[in-house]
């Protein structure tokens, strides 16, 4: 299956790529709020103009092609990609407590459980309550969750 690769940008200026089956697939996913910034989780995402990608795999080459240069004017996207890869690597090393996150975070905060880095699932309400109790928590964008830690 061929994919459409779009250059995307969130309302905060973060640049990233999205791969979609078609323009209609992008539009559908965006309308349903599934297209989100991997850095800030914003659903306010727009397509940017991008250079066309050509499939030239059938062309004969006499010499190996040089690796492509990073796209001009987009060093931010390279840095953002590195940050995402680094975060994924860090998250792989943190204990996943699943839907017990709020309870386990409270236990650690009170000293009833050993202090350690944990991650898991918490509702917006649970995150607010934890913050009110003085427990530091941060939401992790969906692109960094277990299903995407490869």
UniProtKB/TrEMBL annotation:
Superkingdom of the organism of origin: Bacteria
Annotated region (Disordered), positions in chain: 56-76
Protein name per UniProt: DUF1178 family protein
Source lineage: Bacteria, Pseudomonadati, Pseudomonadota, Betaproteobacteria, Burkholderiales
């Amino acid at each position: 299956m061929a994919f459409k690769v779009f250059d995307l940008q969130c309302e905060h200026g973060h640049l990233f790529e999205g791969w979609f089956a078609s323009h209609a697939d992008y539009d559908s996913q965006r309308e349903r709020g599934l297209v989100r910034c991997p850095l800030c989780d914003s659903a306010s995402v727009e397509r940017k103009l991008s250079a066309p990608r050509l499939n030239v795999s059938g062309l004969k080459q006499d010499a190996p092609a040089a690796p492509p240069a990073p796209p001009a004017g987009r060093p931010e996207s390279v840095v953002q990609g590195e940050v995402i890869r680094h975060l994924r690597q860090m998250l792989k090393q943190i204990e996943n407590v699943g839907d017990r996150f709020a309870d386990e975070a409270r236990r650690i905060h009170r000293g009833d459980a050993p202090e350690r880095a944990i991650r898991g699932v918490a509702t917006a309400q649970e995150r607010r309550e934890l913050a009110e109790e003085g427990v530091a928590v941060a939401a992790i964008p969906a692109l960094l969750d277990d299903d995407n830690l490869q």
